[in-house]
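User: hey, got a sec? need Crp/Fnr family transcriptional regulator folded
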Amino acid sequence: MPVKEAESVLSKARVIEFERGQTVFLQGEVAKAVYIVMDGWVKLYRIAPSGAEAVVGVFTKGRSFGEAVAFRGDVYPVSAEAVTNCALMRIEAEDYLRQIRTSPEAAISLLSATFAHLHNLVAQVEALKARTGAQRVAEFLCELSDCESGNCEVILPYDKVLIAGRLGMKPESLSRAFSKLKREGVTIQQNRAKIDDIAHLRVYSEEDPANAWTKP
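Assistant: Yep! Here you go:
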């Protein structure tokens, strides 16, 4: 968004601190705001009729959520919860809509953001269907890492049950995936992942799944 329009929207926004486990909003509440993660991690989830929790998404710094329903005045189809201590910027939907009505550039920026969300969802579906569990975990670790090459260490941002839900796996499947990644140079110690060669892990996460399936 152009600086002038962004400053207008941000001048009315506020940053809210949430403690780990604190609810941001609940499924079924009227959506009146968009949230941007400034720091920490937030999960979006639904409770199935059986009582089981289904993790829809996990967001960290720079990611936003709530746009699709807030701009329609609809209800949140999911609940949001802080999975670590976090800071969220809350932007009132009406403030953003007011900007859109007066600025085509603001409307274009929203369309661009919507496309980015869609692209991300398509990538997630592709990963779920076309990659092995170990490859999905490898990609997740690469996303967390800020290393370009060589060995590095990644801190897992939340518990393994939530990581499994984020990657569309069961906890026991996640444990098996971690075991398979040992031969790719990944060692898990509590909430830390030590990676011998991040470049090698990226190649592994992106290789043809047909080859990955044939590995012992």
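Quick note: The mean pLDDT is 85. Let me know if you need anything else on Crp/Fnr family transcriptional regulator.
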